[in-house]
Protein backbone atom coordinates (compact mmCIF):
# COMPACT_ATOMS: atom_id res chain seq x y z
CA UNK A 1 0.00 0.00 0.00
CA UNK A 2 1.43 3.40 -0.96
CA UNK A 3 0.60 6.83 0.47
CA UNK A 4 1.39 10.35 -0.80
CA UNK A 5 1.31 13.58 1.22
CA UNK A 6 0.47 16.75 -0.77
CA UNK A 7 2.61 19.86 -0.44
CA UNK A 8 6.01 21.05 -1.45
CA UNK A 9 7.54 17.67 -0.59
CA UNK A 10 5.99 14.29 -1.15
CA UNK A 11 6.87 11.13 0.78
CA UNK A 12 6.09 7.64 -0.36
CA UNK A 13 6.54 4.53 1.82
CA UNK A 14 5.75 0.87 1.49
CA UNK A 15 4.50 -0.99 4.60
CA UNK A 16 6.03 -4.41 5.34
CA UNK A 17 3.14 -6.87 5.33
CA UNK A 18 4.91 -9.17 7.90
CA UNK A 19 5.76 -6.44 10.48
CA UNK A 20 4.07 -7.07 13.85
CA UNK A 21 2.44 -10.28 12.74
CA UNK A 22 2.35 -13.34 15.02
CA UNK A 23 4.40 -15.34 12.57
CA UNK A 24 7.24 -12.79 12.61
CA UNK A 25 7.27 -12.50 16.41
CA UNK A 26 7.19 -16.26 16.91
CA UNK A 27 10.12 -16.56 14.53
CA UNK A 28 12.13 -13.97 16.49
CA UNK A 29 11.52 -15.80 19.78
CA UNK A 30 12.40 -19.17 18.30
CA UNK A 31 15.52 -17.72 16.77
CA UNK A 32 16.58 -16.39 20.21
CA UNK A 33 16.38 -19.82 21.81
CA UNK A 34 18.05 -21.69 18.97
CA UNK A 35 19.83 -19.79 16.21
CA UNK A 36 21.12 -22.54 13.93
CA UNK A 37 22.42 -20.04 11.38
CA UNK A 38 24.88 -18.40 13.81
CA UNK A 39 25.29 -21.40 16.12
CA UNK A 40 23.79 -19.66 19.18
CA UNK A 41 21.65 -20.89 22.06
CA UNK A 42 19.83 -18.27 24.15
CA UNK A 43 21.78 -15.58 22.35
CA UNK A 44 25.25 -16.99 23.07
CA UNK A 45 27.64 -19.27 21.28
CA UNK A 46 28.99 -22.44 22.86
CA UNK A 47 32.33 -20.72 23.46
CA UNK A 48 30.65 -17.83 25.28
CA UNK A 49 28.68 -20.24 27.45
CA UNK A 50 31.84 -22.18 28.29
CA UNK A 51 33.84 -19.08 29.25
CA UNK A 52 30.91 -17.78 31.33
CA UNK A 53 30.55 -21.05 33.24
CA UNK A 54 34.29 -21.18 33.97
CA UNK A 55 34.24 -17.59 35.23
CA UNK A 56 31.30 -18.04 37.63
CA UNK A 57 32.60 -21.37 38.94
CA UNK A 58 35.97 -19.78 39.69
CA UNK A 59 34.29 -16.69 41.19
CA UNK A 60 32.08 -18.63 43.61
CA UNK A 61 34.91 -21.00 44.51
CA UNK A 62 36.98 -17.97 45.56
CA UNK A 63 34.11 -16.65 47.69
CA UNK A 64 33.67 -20.03 49.42
CA UNK A 65 37.43 -20.33 49.99
CA UNK A 66 37.53 -16.83 51.51
CA UNK A 67 34.64 -17.65 53.87
CA UNK A 68 36.27 -20.91 54.94
CA UNK A 69 39.56 -19.13 55.56
CA UNK A 70 37.86 -16.47 57.72
CA UNK A 71 35.99 -19.18 59.63
CA UNK A 72 39.20 -21.11 60.22
CA UNK A 73 40.91 -18.00 61.61
CA UNK A 74 37.99 -17.29 63.97
CA UNK A 75 37.84 -20.97 64.99
CA UNK A 76 41.50 -20.91 66.00
CA UNK A 77 40.94 -17.90 68.28
CA UNK A 78 38.07 -19.54 70.22
CA UNK A 79 38.44 -21.60 73.37
CA UNK A 80 35.47 -23.97 73.69
CA UNK A 81 35.99 -24.30 77.45
CA UNK A 82 36.42 -20.64 78.28
CA UNK A 83 34.51 -17.52 77.15
CA UNK A 84 36.44 -14.86 75.30
CA UNK A 85 35.33 -12.13 77.72
CA UNK A 86 35.72 -12.90 81.42
CA UNK A 87 35.94 -11.08 84.76
CA UNK A 88 35.19 -7.36 84.45
CA UNK A 89 35.07 -7.58 80.65
CA UNK A 90 32.07 -9.90 80.68
CA UNK A 91 28.49 -8.66 80.66
CA UNK A 92 27.96 -9.87 84.26
CA UNK A 93 31.26 -8.35 85.49
CA UNK A 94 31.80 -11.02 88.16
CA UNK A 95 28.47 -10.19 89.79
CA UNK A 96 25.98 -13.06 89.50
CA UNK A 97 22.26 -12.48 89.41
CA UNK A 98 19.44 -14.78 90.46
CA UNK A 99 17.03 -16.89 88.45
CA UNK A 100 13.90 -18.71 89.61
CA UNK A 101 11.44 -21.43 88.66
CA UNK A 102 8.64 -22.05 87.90
CA UNK A 103 8.78 -19.73 84.91
CA UNK A 104 6.74 -21.33 82.12
CA UNK A 105 6.26 -17.99 80.37
CA UNK A 106 9.35 -15.80 80.04
CA UNK A 107 7.22 -12.73 79.31
CA UNK A 108 5.91 -12.55 82.89
CA UNK A 109 7.30 -13.01 86.41
CA UNK A 110 3.88 -13.73 87.94
CA UNK A 111 3.39 -17.08 89.69
CA UNK A 112 -0.38 -17.55 89.97
CA UNK A 113 -2.38 -20.68 90.73
CA UNK A 114 -5.54 -21.95 92.41
CA UNK A 115 -4.96 -23.86 95.62
CA UNK A 116 -5.55 -27.59 95.19
CA UNK A 117 -6.52 -27.27 91.50
CA UNK A 118 -3.96 -29.61 89.95
CA UNK A 119 -5.31 -29.14 86.45
CA UNK A 120 -4.78 -25.38 86.69
CA UNK A 121 -1.26 -25.39 88.17
CA UNK A 122 0.04 -28.42 86.28
CA UNK A 123 2.02 -26.18 83.93
CA UNK A 124 3.89 -24.72 86.93
CA UNK A 125 4.50 -28.16 88.39
CA UNK A 126 5.74 -29.53 85.05
CA UNK A 127 8.14 -26.60 84.69
CA UNK A 128 9.70 -27.37 88.07
CA UNK A 129 9.86 -31.11 87.43
CA UNK A 130 11.51 -30.64 84.05
CA UNK A 131 14.20 -28.42 85.55
CA UNK A 132 14.90 -30.76 88.46
CA UNK A 133 15.13 -33.72 86.10
CA UNK A 134 18.62 -32.57 85.09
CA UNK A 135 19.68 -32.98 88.72
CA UNK A 136 18.68 -36.62 89.02
CA UNK A 137 21.76 -38.75 89.73
CA UNK A 138 21.47 -40.69 86.49
CA UNK A 139 21.60 -37.41 84.55
CA UNK A 140 24.58 -35.94 86.40
CA UNK A 141 27.13 -37.78 84.31
CA UNK A 142 30.10 -36.99 82.09
CA UNK A 143 31.78 -38.79 79.21
CA UNK A 144 34.66 -39.77 81.49
CA UNK A 145 32.45 -40.46 84.49
CA UNK A 146 34.54 -38.06 86.60
CA UNK A 147 32.44 -36.09 89.09
CA UNK A 148 33.32 -35.01 92.58
CA UNK A 149 31.23 -36.18 95.52
CA UNK A 150 31.06 -33.03 97.63
CA UNK A 151 29.16 -34.44 100.62
CA UNK A 152 32.23 -34.33 102.85
CA UNK A 153 33.18 -30.71 102.14
CA UNK A 154 32.08 -28.11 104.67
CA UNK A 155 34.17 -25.30 103.21
CA UNK A 156 35.68 -24.78 99.77
CA UNK A 157 36.86 -27.60 97.58
CA UNK A 158 40.60 -28.15 97.06
CA UNK A 159 41.91 -26.20 94.08
CA UNK A 160 42.95 -29.44 92.38
CA UNK A 161 39.25 -30.29 91.98
CA UNK A 162 38.08 -26.96 90.56
CA UNK A 163 38.15 -28.25 86.99
CA UNK A 164 35.76 -31.09 87.84
CA UNK A 165 32.01 -30.87 88.33
CA UNK A 166 30.65 -31.17 91.85
CA UNK A 167 27.58 -33.39 92.13
CA UNK A 168 24.55 -31.58 93.54
CA UNK A 169 22.39 -33.72 95.83
CA UNK A 170 18.64 -33.19 95.52
CA UNK A 171 18.27 -34.38 99.12
CA UNK A 172 19.74 -31.02 100.18
CA UNK A 173 16.51 -29.36 99.00
CA UNK A 174 14.60 -30.92 101.91
CA UNK A 175 11.41 -32.98 102.02
CA UNK A 176 8.78 -30.24 102.07
CA UNK A 177 9.13 -29.07 98.46
CA UNK A 178 8.66 -32.31 96.54
CA UNK A 179 6.65 -33.29 93.47
CA UNK A 180 4.59 -35.80 95.48
CA UNK A 181 3.05 -32.76 97.22
CA UNK A 182 2.87 -30.72 94.01
CA UNK A 183 5.66 -28.46 95.35
CA UNK A 184 3.28 -27.06 97.96
CA UNK A 185 0.68 -25.81 95.48
CA UNK A 186 -1.79 -28.47 96.60
CA UNK A 187 -1.98 -26.77 100.02
CA UNK A 188 -1.51 -23.16 98.95
CA UNK A 189 2.07 -23.17 100.28
CA UNK A 190 4.08 -22.71 97.08
CA UNK A 191 7.76 -23.51 96.67
CA UNK A 192 9.96 -21.39 94.41
CA UNK A 193 13.31 -22.70 93.18
CA UNK A 194 16.28 -20.32 92.98
CA UNK A 195 19.68 -20.56 91.34
CA UNK A 196 22.66 -18.28 90.88
CA UNK A 197 23.35 -17.52 87.24
CA UNK A 198 26.68 -18.90 86.10
CA UNK A 199 29.66 -16.55 85.99
CA UNK A 200 32.87 -18.07 84.68
CA UNK A 201 35.60 -18.50 87.33
CA UNK A 202 33.73 -16.50 89.97
CA UNK A 203 34.64 -17.32 93.57
CA UNK A 204 32.25 -16.24 96.35
CA UNK A 205 33.85 -14.55 99.35
CA UNK A 206 32.95 -14.69 103.04
CA UNK A 207 32.29 -11.51 104.97
CA UNK A 208 35.48 -10.63 106.85
CA UNK A 209 33.90 -10.01 110.24
CA UNK A 210 30.57 -9.45 111.94
CA UNK A 211 30.50 -5.76 111.14
CA UNK A 212 30.64 -6.49 107.38
CA UNK A 213 27.55 -8.70 107.46
CA UNK A 214 24.41 -6.80 106.33
CA UNK A 215 22.03 -6.27 109.20
CA UNK A 216 19.14 -8.07 107.48
CA UNK A 217 21.00 -11.41 107.46
CA UNK A 218 23.09 -11.22 110.65
CA UNK A 219 20.85 -13.68 112.48
CA UNK A 220 20.80 -16.29 109.72
CA UNK A 221 24.12 -15.91 107.90
CA UNK A 222 26.41 -18.96 107.74
CA UNK A 223 30.04 -18.88 106.56
CA UNK A 224 30.90 -20.56 103.25
CA UNK A 225 27.42 -19.96 101.88
CA UNK A 226 26.05 -17.44 99.41
CA UNK A 227 23.12 -16.43 101.56
CA UNK A 228 19.61 -16.04 100.12
CA UNK A 229 17.03 -13.75 101.61
CA UNK A 230 13.56 -12.77 100.35
CA UNK A 231 11.61 -9.62 101.25
CA UNK A 232 8.28 -8.05 100.49
CA UNK A 233 8.75 -5.06 98.19
CA UNK A 234 6.47 -2.93 100.38
CA UNK A 235 5.53 -3.24 104.07
CA UNK A 236 2.13 -4.59 102.99
CA UNK A 237 3.86 -7.21 100.83
CA UNK A 238 6.07 -8.12 103.78
CA UNK A 239 2.99 -8.80 105.91
CA UNK A 240 1.16 -10.73 103.20
CA UNK A 241 4.23 -12.81 102.37
CA UNK A 242 4.31 -14.29 105.85
CA UNK A 243 6.91 -16.72 107.15
CA UNK A 244 9.53 -18.17 104.78
CA UNK A 245 11.48 -21.44 104.80
CA UNK A 246 14.79 -21.98 102.98
CA UNK A 247 16.30 -25.30 101.93
CA UNK A 248 19.25 -25.55 102.26
CA UNK A 249 19.01 -23.08 105.13
CA UNK A 250 22.41 -21.48 104.48
CA UNK A 251 21.88 -20.84 100.77
CA UNK A 252 24.30 -21.75 97.97
CA UNK A 253 27.36 -23.52 99.35
CA UNK A 254 30.85 -22.39 98.28
CA UNK A 255 31.88 -25.95 97.39
CA UNK A 256 29.95 -25.74 94.09
CA UNK A 257 32.12 -22.86 92.86
CA UNK A 258 33.86 -21.85 90.67
CA UNK A 259 32.06 -22.58 87.43
CA UNK A 260 34.60 -23.31 84.69
CA UNK A 261 32.36 -24.92 82.12
CA UNK A 262 33.07 -28.32 83.63
CA UNK A 263 31.32 -31.17 81.90
CA UNK A 264 28.24 -32.21 83.86
CA UNK A 265 28.22 -29.02 85.98
CA UNK A 266 24.95 -28.17 87.72
CA UNK A 267 24.29 -24.85 89.45
CA UNK A 268 23.45 -25.16 93.17
CA UNK A 269 19.79 -24.67 94.05
CA UNK A 270 17.73 -23.36 96.95
CA UNK A 271 14.02 -24.00 97.50
CA UNK A 272 12.08 -21.18 99.17
CA UNK A 273 8.70 -22.15 100.65
CA UNK A 274 5.93 -19.71 101.53
CA UNK A 275 3.78 -21.62 104.06
CA UNK A 276 1.65 -18.68 105.22
CA UNK A 277 1.28 -16.43 102.19
CA UNK A 278 -2.02 -14.52 102.10
CA UNK A 279 -4.56 -15.78 99.58
CA UNK A 280 -6.29 -13.69 96.89
CA UNK A 281 -3.69 -10.94 97.31
CA UNK A 282 -0.92 -10.13 94.85
CA UNK A 283 2.39 -10.19 96.74
CA UNK A 284 5.49 -8.61 95.20
CA UNK A 285 8.67 -10.30 96.39
CA UNK A 286 12.34 -9.49 95.97
CA UNK A 287 15.05 -12.05 96.75
CA UNK A 288 18.74 -11.18 97.14
CA UNK A 289 21.97 -13.15 97.13
CA UNK A 290 24.57 -12.17 99.75
CA UNK A 291 28.33 -12.57 99.67
CA UNK A 292 31.16 -10.12 100.20
CA UNK A 293 31.72 -9.80 96.45
CA UNK A 294 28.07 -9.64 95.34
CA UNK A 295 26.62 -6.21 94.67
CA UNK A 296 22.85 -5.85 94.99
CA UNK A 297 21.03 -3.40 92.73
CA UNK A 298 17.30 -3.76 92.18
CA UNK A 299 17.27 -1.48 89.14
CA UNK A 300 20.06 -3.34 87.34
CA UNK A 301 18.82 -6.68 88.72
CA UNK A 302 22.33 -7.34 89.99
CA UNK A 303 22.37 -9.98 92.72
CA UNK A 304 18.57 -9.79 92.97
CA UNK A 305 15.40 -11.02 91.36
CA UNK A 306 11.77 -9.91 91.63
CA UNK A 307 8.58 -11.84 91.04
CA UNK A 308 4.91 -11.72 91.97
CA UNK A 309 2.95 -14.41 93.81
CA UNK A 310 -0.84 -14.81 93.78
CA UNK A 311 -2.61 -17.76 95.38
CA UNK A 312 -6.36 -18.06 94.72
Plain-language structure description:
Strand 1 and strand 2 (40-41) form a beta hairpin. The protein has a five-stranded mixed β-sheet with strand order 5-12-11-7-9. The protein has a four-stranded antiparallel β-sheet with strand order 4-6-10-8. A three-stranded antiparallel β-sheet has the order 1-2-3. 21% of the residues lie in helices and 17% in strands. The protein starts with 21 loop residues before the first helix and ends with a strand. The chain is an alpha+beta fold and 312 residues long. It contains four helices and twelve strands; from the N terminus they run H-E-E-E-H-E-E-H-E-E-H-E-E-E-E-E.
Biggest sheet, open or closed, and with what strands and sense?
5 strands, mixed
- Which percent range describes the beta-strand content? 15-25%
Strand line-up across the major sheet: 5-12-11-7-9
Mean model confidence by pLDDT: 83
Element-by-element helix/strand order: HEEEHEEHEEHEEEEE
Helical amount: 10-25%
| Derived structural class | alpha+beta
- The Rg value, from CA coordinates, equals 36 Å
Amino acid sequence: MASTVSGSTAFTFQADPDTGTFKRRFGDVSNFFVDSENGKVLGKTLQQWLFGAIFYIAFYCCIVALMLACGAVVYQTLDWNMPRLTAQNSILQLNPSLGFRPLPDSSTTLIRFIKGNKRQYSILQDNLEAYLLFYENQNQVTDTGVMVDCKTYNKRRPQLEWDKACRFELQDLGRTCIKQQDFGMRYGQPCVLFKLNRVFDWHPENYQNGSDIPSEIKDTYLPYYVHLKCFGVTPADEDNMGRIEYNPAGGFHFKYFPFRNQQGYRSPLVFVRFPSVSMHILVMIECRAYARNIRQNSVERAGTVRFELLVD
